[in-house]
Amino acid sequence: MNWREIKIPDWVKRWRWLIIVVASMVVLAFAGYFTLLIGGKRIVDERLLVLDEASVIETRNGDELTKLYKENRTVVPIGDIPDHVENAFIAIEDGRFYEHAGVDVIATARALYRDLIAMEKVEGGSTITQQLSKNLFLTHDKTWTRKIKEVMASLYLERNVPKKKILEYYLNTIYFGNGLYGIESASQYFFNKPVSDISLTEGALLAALPKGPNYYDPIDHPERAKGRRDIVISRMLAEGFVTSEEAVQLQRKNLGINHGSPEEKPWLNSYLDYVVTEAKEEYGLSEDELYQGGYRIVVSVDEDIQRISHEVMQIDQYFPGSVEGVQGTFLLMDEETGEILAAQGGRNNERGDLNRLLEKRQPGSVMKPLAVYGPALDLEQYTPYSLLVDQKLSYGDYTPTNYDYKYDDYISIYKSLMLSKNASAVWLLNEIGIDYSKNYLEKLGMDLEDNGLSIALGGLKKGVTPVDLVRSYRTFIHDGEMIEPHSIVEIYDKDGELVHKYEPKPKQIFNPQTAWSITRMLESVVTEGTGRSGAYEKALAGKTGSTQHPYVDKKTKDAWFVGFTPEYVGSVWMGYDQSDEKHYLNDGSASPTKLMKEVLTRVDQVKQLEDSFTQPDGVEDVPPPIDLPIIDDLDGTLSFGSLTLLQAELTWTPARDDRVVYRIYREEEGQDERIGEVEGRGRYTIKRLTVFHDETYYIVPYDPLTDTEGSPSNQVRVEW
Q1: How many whole angstroms separate alpha carbon 669 and alpha carbon 617?
Q2: Does the domain formed by 74-252 have CATH 1.20.120.140?
Q3: Is residue 34's pLDDT more than 90?
Q4: Domain 364-456 - what CATH class?
């Protein structure tokens, strides 16, 4: 066929320009459509479809303590959202949601017309898909460029994401005011129940809020909220989701708000901050993961003890200082599990404030059991009644002194610890060796750069934390075994999968006999030693500590009490955040000791704590020390015994402690002779005296625990 013979129909010739224009428009339309699709792929960042979700910190019982979030959102699947709730949002926001392909041409054309008339952006014709695109991928400015991008993203989503999934994303991203994102958070906030349980009117109220979350807030503006809710119900009628009769009945109902006033719990602030720190440092969760990842963190807090400790820390009389602003910490751990039950990082901390539980301070004498007496008792040559030198001695440039400047020459380990003697503690550290002591401290988690004898008295360059001390003192109540303090029990991801669980890794530090011996000695610190201040009737063992203020003579910088009951291990620190001539404590370790006892007394009213410690199997008990009496009433009388033999009766007032042995001496030329002894009695009979011969006697009390004698009594002369 010859192409030149083809004839173009006349109608084509007549309409050729129209055909060209229409064809061009079709080509351009297809080109524009594909351009929009390609552009949409570039705009849609699918990573943003992974919605930020609040993490929850809760108790073992499932009680929510707080949420961590950048956007307060709990994501719920579309299957958990009732149909009547979906219908309420579709009716008011996008009646043709299931019909359009992402853009409602009619609504958009109407909006464009009104914008052109006004010469500015005055009306939106956005579909649910467009709103989702704007919320996730774009800014909220009203410009033509943003609108075109919104269309691009919407067309892309509609081609790649199912309608139901788009609706799920939308309902989980809407802002409802009051810091609430997503329908689940809004349902819990306004109705105190999950979205799966809310009624049609409640769903309609939630659908009313996105237009103006603050303006229509049902708590602050209930009349506005009801009016807007009724409009939603009217739209549901127009879309066929409810009947006329149902609409009338629904619009008569009240709002049904069940918000209540959430209980203020300032006493939890420090504990929650501690949990966040632990999640980061121990489990490697980043800030973004914690505040966006939707984790569920189960913690070990005992709310009763946490509240009680906070209340007691508000009592000013326990914090005597030169000026206002004395700070303090309180930490209590379950001795069996290592779970932190209460944590106060300050007297009245807000969230994010300085957590002093993690700050290093000079520990003072609370270091003595850890750095000196515990390591020494692990050696065979030392027992609680081994004698130490208690004298003012110099070790190079270092001369430790007792706090009262009194010295006993020789003193047992038991009494040295009970009375918190400095000179004898340093002498013992010098005997066992600094390296030997530091090896124990390293195993306890305290890797010190210090290398001097001042370690014995807690004179450290950087100090230690309350957590360090609680971790370490736990060894004494638990057979010498250490366990890591922890507040987090379990962590679940947003899908409910267990991702982290605390696994105890016990470490043996001291032998069980050493641990029990220290426990017994620390009991005496509380009942007879430096920890007598305050009142607590149940079992308690512990050690006080204080540090000399660097600028004010005879004033205290840091004051401590660290100790344990059969149930708990705890610490209290007091001091100022700054150290200068104007900031010092007017009391030493008595104040933290009183505070600890007050907290335990209140806890006992709730928990019924134990009256005494239970001696572990396989260890020997440690008897309390013997105080040798001063005898100044020795008397002697003559009498006839059997067979008319002459005898002398020596009498004196014995000590209440019937363990005291009384040695009877007769004065002799050269060296006096010990002629006998009695235990626990104030009478001794000397038989067969020599007639017409005067004899002089005296008594010396003897301590069988330390193998030492006390001061001689007055002398008595027995003569015929």
Answers
A1: 52
A2: no
A3: no
A4: alpha beta
Secondary structure class of 319 (helix, strand, coil): coil
Tell me the CATH class for 267-315+326-361+465-625.
Answer: alpha beta
CA–CA separation, 671 vs 112, rounded Å? 122
Instruction: Quote the distance between the C-alpha of residue 200 and its chain's center.
Output: 42
CA–CA gap between residue 446 and residue 128 (Å, rounded): 59
Q: State the number of CA atoms in the 13 A half-sphere of 458 facing the CB.
A: 28
Q: Where are the beta strands (DSSP E) in 98-167?
A: none
CA dihedral of residues 402, 404, 408, 414 (deg, nearest 10): -70
8 Å CB contact between 572 and 596: yes
CB atoms inside a 10 Å sphere around CB 134: 21
- Kindly state the tokens that stand for 505: 């890794």
Confidence check: pLDDT of 104 > 90: no
Handedness of CA 373, 375, 376, 381 (dihedral sign): positive
Task: Decide which of 2.60.40.10, 3.40.50.2300, 3.30.565.10, 3.40.50.300 is the CATH code for 635-718.
Answer: 2.60.40.10
Nearest to 501 by CA among 336, 300, 292: 300
Give start and end residues of each alpha helix (H) in 478-612: 512-527, 590-607
Q: Outline where DSSP puts E strands in 231-353.
A: 296-299, 327-334, 340-344
Predicted model pTM:
0.85
Pairing of strands 661-666, 673-679: antiparallel
Separation between Cα atoms, residue 265 and residue 110, nearest integer Å: 52
25, 41, 98, 104, 185 from 164: Cα distances, Å: 34, 20, 9, 17, 20
How many beta carbons lie within 10 A of that of residue 287, not counting itself?
11
Q: What tokens appear for 196 in the block?
A: 């799966």
Residues 439-491 have pLDDT tens digits of 999 999 999 999 999 999 999 999 999 999 999 999 999 999 999 999 999 99
Distance CA 364, CA 369 (A): 11
CA atoms of 364 and 368, how far apart (whole Å): 8
Residue pointed to by tokens 């720190």: 277
Scored b (16 or more CB within 10 A) or e, 424-460 reads bbbbbbbebebeebbebbebbbbebebebbbbbbbbb
**Residue extents of the structural domains in the chain:** 1-40, 74-252, 267-315+326-361+465-625, 364-456, 635-718
User: How far is it, in rounded angstroms, from Cα 34 to Cα 32?
Assistant: 5
Residue bearing tokens 């065979």: 380
DSSP three-state, residue 8: coil
Spatial CA neighbour of 596 closest among 546, 537, 536:
536
Polymer length of the chain: 720
Quickly count: other Cβ atoms within 10 Å of residue 322's Cβ.
Answer: 16
Residue type, 679: E
How many other C-beta atoms are found inside a 10 Å radius of the C-beta of residue 380?
A: 6
Whether 364-456 shares its CATH topology with 635-718 is answered no
How many Å apart are CA 99 and CA 262, to the nearest integer? 43
Distance CA 521, CA 401 (A): 22
pLDDT (tens digit per residue) in 614-664: 999 999 999 999 999 999 999 998 877 655 567 889 999 999 999 999 999
Reduce the DSSP state of residue 572 to 3 states and report it. strand
Cα angle 656-661-665, degrees, rounded to a multiple of 5: 125
CA distance 416 to 165: 73
Is 675 in contact with 700 (CB distance < 8 Å)? no
Q: Catalogue the active-site residues.
A: 93, 365
